[in-house]
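Notes from the 1:1 (GR / supervisor)

We went over the backlog. Supervisor wanted to see one worked example end to end before approving the batch request, so GR pasted a single chain during the call. The sequence is below; no edits were made to it. Supervisor asked that the structure be written out right there so they could see what the output format looks like.
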Amino acid sequence: MNAARGIEGRIRLAALLILVGLAIEAITLRVLHPLSFIAFASLGVLAIGLGIVVFLLALLKAGEAPTS
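Structure output shown during the call:
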């Protein structure tokens, strides 16, 4: 049961990171300021990228055979 909770937690973390990234990008699209593009390109894309990486690593760890 702990393995199931572990993958669910990692997938929830990945979803949270992706949602935060999308929220940052949506907010910065509405703001008309030169620094909003920097926030869009750095913070938003970084959060979405981290979410994707966490999700893929969670899938890889779930596919491994248990060692015990």
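Supervisor's comment: The two ends are 14 Å apart (CA to CA).
Batch request approved.
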